[in-house]
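Please think about what follows:
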Amino acid sequence: MSRYKLISIESTSPPAGSVFKRWYKFVIANEKNSITNLRSGTEKEVRQFAIEAVNRLNEKYLTHIQFKHHKPVNDNINNIYL
């Protein structure tokens, strides 16, 4: 799977009832998925948040994790005496 990238950031109108006036919509995507999010703040703050989100996604989905396989608890089923 390819790495996530910040595709776009654009100014958008605030949601109804919002106290904050500056809102931005940003899109993060790879070749299979896309994530669209709204966030208030300055463009610089939103861009920094989006970049951190991209880094977290790439760390989460592109890190190879090796899982330890545990032996089943009842592996010695033939040794049970009734």
Remarks:
- DSSP finds one helix and three strands in the chain.
- The beta strands are 5-12, 23-29, 34-40.
- Residues 5-62 form one domain.
- The two ends are 52 Å apart (CA to CA).
